[in-house]
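Consider the following assembly input.
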Amino acid sequence: MDRSMRCLLLAGALTSILIVLLIGLFILLQGWPALRQVGLGPLLMGRVWRPQKGQFGLLPMIVGSMLVVLGATILGVPLAVACAVFLAEVAPMPVRNVVRPAVELLAGIPSVVYGLFGLVVLVPLVRHIPVPGNSGFGLAAASAVLAVMILPTITNVAENAILAVPQDYREGSLALGATHWQTIVGVTLPAAHSGLVAAIVLGVGRALGETMAMIMVIGNSVILPRPLNGNPLTLALSQARTLTGNIAVEISYATGLHESALFATGLVLFVLIMIVNAGAHALMRGGQHERSG
Amino acid sequence: MSEVANMAGRLALPERTGAPSNLARRRLVQSIAIGLLWLSGLVVIVALMAVVGYVILQGARVINLEFLLTPPRGGLSGEGGISTTVVTTLYLVVLTIGIATPIGVGTAIYLVEYADERRGQRGIVPLLVDAARFGVETLAGVPSIIFGLFGYALFVSALRFGFSLLSASLAGACLVLPVIIRVSEEALRAVPRSLREGSLALGATQWQTVWGAVLPVALPGIITGVVLSVGRVVGETAVFYVTLGGSHYLPTSLLSGGRTMALHVYYLAMDTRAFDKAMGTGAILVLAIILINAVTNYLSRRLTTRMRG
């Protein structure tokens, strides 16, 4: 009984790795025809995605994903890290008991609801910017939505990293005459830096994988995002399409090589996110070693 | 004492020519910085209130008993209510959680109760344990559309389950598995070692110890993880968008497709542009998530007080 239970539980524990392997296998298998017929280079670097004509270039989607993640990082990271510092170092207990559940709830709100909010509120707002060709849909609205969506991930991980800094460090700094703020900037945050970077990288991973909210606000045009007029800032008003959106929008009607190309899109996304997440985990483990060593 | 202070004051004197003293400047910088930190907390609250408040207020206009109890008619203007989508969501939650919970809790039990004693040993088992840990870590980072794509390739196409509750719940189970594992692991690790030792000392086998002594204590924590996963399933869209089909009729069997509330929001907003109905459905969705969050908070708070007490 005891022995068979142990074996059964081990089998259960191996389910996760089995699923990971199956995911890799199936996406590679299904994406293989596109990889072979189109070739990895033209797939990654091709500027034209026209499935009807057999043109499968993913560059617009890769650039679109990267730009919207960059935008969300610029808007969201300062806020998320500030909020983590606030929760860990500044907020009195009653305030913390309000803000932390708020962050948790932000994490729980479904992505379609964020998308709906973006579609009904942010897109019309952006449309007011008087630039020819501005539809409201695009990188600006999508980045704003995404910034709020990745905030809970970054804030939670960053807060834990800050709380893990030993109290002695802070006391030593305060005893030397540093103010509370100087202690935060000069001692606490540097001591927590690997955890903070890990938090941001995890947030980037989350942002890369977001699908439904992006479809709803980014416009989904298959173009390389570019400024609408001479002002480079109007790049933010350009429509775009993310890798995730490319899969979700077309998979329901795609067949043959087109379907295979969508799996190849998934493969590109999967590899990108695995690299990002592996980086985050390496950073977090590095931080633990530093502290214990 | 005052002489020392005097000396210090005199030493600092040459730097102080009209400009505010070093200490005053540091205090000013500190108050501005701390003020900004307070502002960041405020912005988070405002962002939450804006999204939740807007959706609920707009949604409240269309929500009534009829909206909740009539099925959607699937027309272009989004006529009808949301009853079938609520039922489909419940079906999917039960199926997904039913599949994921035994596997997830089993994984956590193995990793916490059985794997550690093998640490440092040689052979195949430690390698498998490392693989299992790597699997959980990796799975947690896989984006939901990839689970959808995988579910589409394996369950919908290869196994010929079609767009169905079965395909969707299997793909959904992959999505929530890491959540259940992580939370259960934490719950099991929080169980005091003395409990296990006491049980083993009384002659119980390891499985008897796990089943009779450890699991009952860890149960509230495990339930927290399960409730958390319910929230994930209720809010998830991308996975079900490519595995569940989207028919607005009530599923009649495991092999028939359907539409969850979250999917309904998407179809209403994107296909039929019926924003008012989408807001109504979204409001119900947000209220459900708030309720689920409240339950998890209540459970974990009761858990911590009991552990301390």
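Chain B has a mean pLDDT of 87. Ask yourself how this observation constrains the way the partners meet.
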